[in-house]
Amino acid sequence: MSGDGDRPVILRSPYPDVEIPELSVTEYVIGSAAARGDATAIIDGITGERTTYAELSKRVAAAARAIARLGVGQGDVVALMSRNQPAYIIAFHGAIAAGGSLTPLNPVLTAREATDQVRDSGAKVVIVDDGTVEKGQEVARAVGAALVVLDRSWPGSNDGGGLPPGSSGFDPATALAALPYSSGTTGRAKGVMLTHRNLVANLAQLAPMWPYGPDDVVCAVLPMFHIYGMNVIMNLALASGSTIVTLPRFDVEGYLATIERHRVTRMHLAPPMILQLVSSAEVDRFDHSSVRWAVSGAAPLDAELAARFERRFGVPVAQGYGMTEASPGTHLIPERDQADAPIGSIGWLMPNTEGRLVSPETGQDSDQQGEVWVRGPQVMAGYLNNPTATAETLTTDGWLKTGDVARLGGGAFFIVDRVKELIKYKGYQVAPAELEGLLLTHPGVLDAAVVPMPHDAGGEAPKAFVVATGELDTDELMSWVAERVAPYKRIRAIEFIDEIPKSPSGKILRRVLRDRGDAKATP
Fold first, then answer.
1. What angle do CA 320, 418, 519 make, to 5 degrees?
2. 159 or 276, which is more confident?
3. End-to-end CA separation in angstroms for the chain
4. 308 near 378, Cβ under 8 Å?
5. Dihedral through CA 91, CA 96, CA 100, CA 105, nearest 10?
6. 156, 199, 291, 484: which one has the fewest Cβ atoms less than 10 Å from its Cβ?
7. Crossing angle, helix 133-143 and helix 111-121, to 10 degrees?
8. 494 alpha carbon, distance to own chain's centre
9. Is the dihedral of CA 47, 51, 56, 61 positive or negative?
10. What confidence tier does 523 reach under pLDDT thresholds 50, 70, 90?
11. Left (φ > 0), alpha (ψ -120 to 50) or beta: where does 184 sit?
12. What is the pLDDT of residues 54-80, one digit of tens each?
């Protein structure tokens, strides 16, 4: 059945709506921390150092006062560039408790890329870890921001003082809490304006579906600068009184050893991690019997790979679905329904969430297949300083166009295609337009187009089609690009062609390019 004319076919969540508290995200996440006393909130997976909930509450307050002394108040932005570590959590909520909003940066960004984001966000303070000090100094100088280094002396004494004045007297529905950058459905990275209500709403929506508790131990190895690591792992676990074990990077042996040592109960994964785990002989060397639940996000999970994981670990792995612009969750498989969920599906709409399936070709609604549109309290306020991109992604009545095509089966959603041009390499977003713009600055490149190609380790990876002005060496051009972008944005294959296929309006015909050539991806 299709929509009747312009009348939308609105799909609704099968789960009852939840109440959304009128709180800041920091109040929601750690407002009860002091009362939890000596319960362990965070474990540094490298050093073993533990932070209790009472200490967490005090350290966040101290961080808020330290950040406020740098001139941060209501409406100001703080940039944070750090690996996963306990201090990341302190800085994140300290900035928000000071009244500011937090823009997270991937530590592997080049200084130029980081500067672009910090400048666009308007951040007054740049916080970095000890591994990105030089880059942070360059960024702070370029934008005239104050620089803070996360070390053992920061944020100073836990003197028991209260929160700074800037942390009160604001509207959670309009005040920004986080400003992550996303390529959205296409184009260069844009600041996603997530309000306190957006983040709190998604946490409240997730809580009854994935009921974390004080007995749960979560390993935070997915980066907390990514919305998945930020809200689904870091904030949801702390709001539930669980223990978080931080790891700065994923490797199979280190991850499995952490599960065994700290008796991790919940695994948060992405498809490339699952592939490495199920393919490794190391799994049999470690005790993972404490794990009782696993979920995969950030990219589509192949049904066969999910089955291999269940055989190897003894628990099924569910999928969740969302995007940065939705804080991030819109669809999920609840823990209680995991055994009965259709294989390969992303489950059902979350509480308080509506959906539509809209034909990219006709714009007509369907109850069978189409681009996924969602509406709910978790949907962003818009893109920072970019009304054009906002209008392209958000309708005037609040529908978020995800750029992903899904079909319905057994009442559940299955992602089957993408309308958007975005490339997902190991869960990281790579915008073809950004790489194309860079390639066109090379003197030997006349024209260029970038499309996704299959990649064993990354799921998919950027491949460039290049029209050269003369003789051009593939390896040299790939190295030239690699020097100017973060590692996950590197072009993994190049094919030289005579002309880039385009529509009469000049739009690159990416589907034509995806169907030709078979260049092998580099690691």
1. 110
2. 276
3. 45
4. no
5. 50
6. 156
7. 40
8. 28
9. negative
10. very low
11. left
12. 999 999 999 999 999 999 999 999 999
DSSP code of residue 508: B
**Which of these, 138, 141, 427, 492, lies nearest to 274 by C-alpha position?**
427
pLDDT by residue (tens digit) across 480-515?
Answer: 999 999 999 999 999 999 988 876 555 678 778 887
pLDDT tens per residue across span 453-481: 888 888 889 999 999 988 899 999 999 99
370-412 pLDDT per residue, tens: 899 999 999 999 999 999 999 999 999 999 999 888 889 878 9
Say which DSSP state 230 is in: I
Q: What are the CA-CA distances from residue 206 to residues 106, 269, 421 (Å)?
A: 25, 17, 29
Distance CA 322, CA 333 (A): 12
What pLDDT shows up at residue 20?
97
Kindly give the residue spans of alpha helices, DSSP state H, lying in 319-395.
387-393
Q: Phi and psi of 204, rounded to 5°?
A: -65, -35
What is the pLDDT averaged over residues 304-309?
87
Give me the half-sphere count of Cα atoms (radius 13 Å) on the Cβ side of residue 304: 0
**pLDDT tier, 30 (very low <50, low <70, confident <90, very high otherwise):** very high
pLDDT level of residue 185 (50, 70, 90 thresholds):
low
Q: Do 297 and 320 meet the contact criterion of CB atoms below 8 Å apart?
A: yes
The encoded tokens of residue 450 equal: 């970038």
Neighbours of 484 (CB within 10 A): 15
241/239 Cα distance (integer angstroms): 6
**Residue among 241, 239, 251, 151 nearest 203 (CA):** 239
Could you tell me if 190 and 422 are in contact, meaning their C-beta atoms sit under 8 angstroms apart? no
For residue 450, give Cα distances in angstroms to 123, 389, 422: 31, 21, 10
Pairing of strands 459-468, 493-496: parallel
Quick one: which of 298, 122, 97 has its CA closest to 193? Answer: 122
Token pair 């790891």 is found at: 247
What's the burial of 205, exposed, middle or buried (CB within 10 Å: 0-12/13-18/19+)?
buried
Q: What are phi and psi of 188, to 5 degrees?
A: -75, 160
Nearest C-alpha neighbor of 372 from the set 435, 321, 301: 321
What is the Cα–Cα distance from 496 to 332, expressed in whole angstroms? 42
Query: Averaged over 118-130, what is the pLDDT?
Result: 97
Distance CA 467, CA 4 (A): 46
β pairing state of 217-220 and 243-246: parallel
Question: What domains does the chain contain, in order, with CATH numbers?
Answer: 1-16+199-375+388-420 (3.40.50.12780), 24-171 (3.40.50.12780), 423-514 (3.30.300.30)
Q: Which of 431, 450, 421 is nearest to 488 (CA)?
A: 431
Rounded Cα distance, 470 and 57, in Å: 62
